[in-house]
Predict the 3D structure of the following.
Amino acid sequence: MKHMLKDTGFALPTLLIASVIMLTVLLASVTAVSSITGGINSQYYNQLAREAAESGLANAETCLRHNNYSPTWTDAAPLRPFTLCTGATDATFPQYVFQSANVRTTFTVKRPTVGEASSLNIVSEGTVELVRTSDPSQVARSYTVTVGKASRYNDAPQIAGGAGWKDGGHNGYMLASTGILYGWGDNSSNQLGSIALGTTVSTPVTIAFPSGVSRAKKVFNSGQGASILCILATHSSLGDQAYCRGTELVGGSDWVRFGLTSGLTALDMAVNGYGGNSACVKASDLQVYCSGINDSGGLGTGTGSAAYVAFTSPVKFRLDLANPGPVSGSASSLTVKKLFHQDRTTCVIASDDQAYCAGDNNYGQLGQGNFTTNVWIGKSTPGRAQIPGNPPVTDVVLTYHGAQEGVFFHVNDPPEATIYMSGHNGQGTANDGAFSGSCPVSGSVNCYSTPRRITTGWFGKVVSVGEEGDNRHAICVMSGAVYCIGTNTYGELGLGSCTNRSHWTANMNIGGQVVDYNLNREATYQMNSLMLLTTTGDVYAAGDNRYGKLGTGAALNACNPNFARVQLPTGVKGVAIANSDEYTAFILGDNGKVYSMGRNNNGQLGNGTTTNSNTPVEVKLPRQETIF
């Protein structure tokens, strides 16, 4: 050893000192590496927590859009990955956003608070839990990140389109995220602007707002009857108000403010133009006020009068007189959560989560256990739908031509979300396997004055599909898959034939894709065809293609019973659709552009021509406008 030490030239103490130094350096290096590794791990888990929180935000915004920006969950029952929009637990949903052997992420979103300009402040808390492999019930460590966002009506562009009775009028509308409103198509009722524009406007124009208004929050048109245009907008001194234009409803050629009592603001609106031009507004006192044609008592005045109600002097939907009234308590204490209005029927979901309707009831379509003597008398006093067991109602769907034939109630009946139908079964929509039978009042079809359960299981969306010409209609329910029942003259149910169906039939040929049931509001009512948006952003359509409305490039046939993909430009995905016009449809692309297809006699394709197109064309919105 001495010889070896001599050869190396180092003494033993020197080696010991060097060893200690090297061990110290190594220990410091290991500590630094451990610190860096720990930092990287924390950064990774915090990012996972942030992604979980952002997932909660996206979920909250979807729920708000689905419920017209009225929060349906509470602090006590917050949104979680495994809850419905009401905060109620659904065992069919995954418990976590992400889960592996020892890592799981979740989010918690409490009820939003109201901020500036009626915005809703959403706060989402994302959490990562590291669990012990030996005992997954034990959390060894957790990471939490909180994110927030202010969500408004106009947080995304809104498109709308429909067909009108007046001179066959057709229109398209685009509300940009900046609050600017564009319109094109028929202008015979001055719904786009002054008569100086002409009656056919084939290139989009900016629609000037009422005095005191600089931007719109929401746009409404009357669908099958699109000669009426309305907006919800903030007035500089009056707050949020509703305005409409179009000679059919307001009698003039410029904007007219819906005549709410001084001090009240407008929270939401529904517009009708099905030959019975009218509009209803949900106001800040959480009551509904209506104006326009009052056939069959559809405005719910409780007076039995069918007299026209001036737009500037609306009447209250008399929920306080409801008969039948609430299951318990007084009708005078009821307020409105959601509003539905179409043709000669108005329905609301009230603060007790029950549906109350007024209007046509000759087929028992209001679901109140009785019938009126004929279609023109109706029922002017609102009443509660007699749904067995009184489960909470989350949505009401009125069929083509309002509810002249049927009303569909979408109820939250945990762990299911069930559909009930009341009214006329001439089209097979009662799911009783028949198109005929005996009706207590008129006709030769089954009629149900007490809502009949027509589905079993969970469904996220109900879509009403109408046909031109009379009261033919169909209903489709969605939960990723699509099931349809009812009229099918044009093959709009996408079931391989143009034969009506009196029992639910699943659509199995939508390109093998899953349907996104969180459709925009306009897509809950469609005409002559069914257009579906998939979770991958592809759009499929079936039905009437006489003017090329399906946008698939197919021949101009009336019967197209198989879904085909809409030929959007390469790389463009759909994010919203509007399909309430008989012969024209609109799609908002993920590139911020609007595409249209079908009939163009009034310039409603918005591409500067009056030539029909069976593939999508780009609407020529001003280039300086940034949609996203």
